[in-house]
Amino acid sequence: MVLTEEERKARDKARRQTPAYKAKEKARDQRPERIAKKKASRDKPENKIKAKTRRDKPENKKKKKLQNQKYNSSIEGKKKDKARRRTPEYIAKEKARKSTPEYKAYMKKHRSTTEFKAKDRITRKKRESTPEFKAKQDGEKLLKSMRRAMVLLGYSQRHSNSKVPCCRCCGENSFVEFLDIDHIAGRYKMDSIPELVKIGYSSLLKDYRLIDWILEKDFPEGFQILCKNCNGAKGLYGVCPHETARKEETFAMMEEQSSFEV
């Protein structure tokens, strides 16, 4: 029985779609000589031009884009892409690309767009609502509060001989939230104290950066614990009214004692 040209093409196409034929072709393509032959063919200038012309066709670009989207959305594609992004070559290449002036200018312009801000807001809100992010935030808050409590207790023991964090001026110890770390000589004046500058003090150290520095340097001199009222009054008047009242009371007692002795 003689087959027509169309029937012969249909038969060959069906044969090429069988698993056995595909497995045989895959094994053949993995041979070293076959790989070398394909590479040599691809490296020919005329074949490079032909392949580029074929890739640049609109229909081929659209087809390739759809194929990439389908593969990248698959489990295998995501896994492969994740592994590729972790390679040292990819990280170095991305770092070099992002450090160029063109990229920085593009990102600055892109971040200022309304679309980017809206998308970033949604992404950030979605990330912050995950249990992992909330657990991480809670852990960081707990660690920061513990380190702050260590600093408050350390200086309270030194200056007030107290077993709990307290204000050195009025003795407030109800809530640690009411207590502050006070710069005895003033934050900016302490920049001129050689002993502190030598160990790395700077008036730029604030909040938890200051707490980390104090713990790292093992509670250096120059700091004390005050409540927010005493600290605010000291900053406003130069001295807390409690301290002024104590001095007046001391002077009055001394005068009383001197007049009694006379």
Write the layout of secondary structure elements.
Layout: H1 5-16, H2 19-29, H3 32-42, H4 45-55, H5 58-72, H6 75-85, H7 88-98, H8 101-111, H9 114-128, H10 131-160, E1 179-183, H11 194-198, H12 207-216, E2 223-227, H13 228-237, H14 241-261
Antiparallel strand pairs: 1-2
Q: What does this protein look like?
A:
It is a single chain. The protein has 262 residues and is mainly alpha-helical. It has a domain at 154-242. The chain has helices at 5-16, 19-29, 32-42, 45-55, 58-72, 75-85, 88-98, 101-111, 114-128, 131-160, 194-198, 207-216, 228-237, 241-261; strands at 179-183, 223-227. It has a two-stranded antiparallel sheet. The chain is rod-shaped. It starts with a helix and ends with a helix.
- Main beta-sheet annotation: 2 strands, antiparallel
Query: C-alpha Rg, in Å?
Result: 37 Å
State the low-pLDDT regions, or none: none
Give the strand tally. 2
As a percent range, the share of strand residues is under 5%
Secondary-structure element sequence? Answer: HHHHHHHHHHEHHEHH
Instruction: Tell me the number of helical segments per DSSP (H or I, 4 or more residues long).
Output: 14
Please give the alpha-carbon distance between the first and last residues. Answer: 145 Å
Strand order of the largest sheet: 1-2
Coarse shape:
rod-shaped
What helical percentage do the residues reach? over 70%
Mean pLDDT: 88
Query: Which structural category do the helix and sheet elements fall into?
Result: mainly alpha
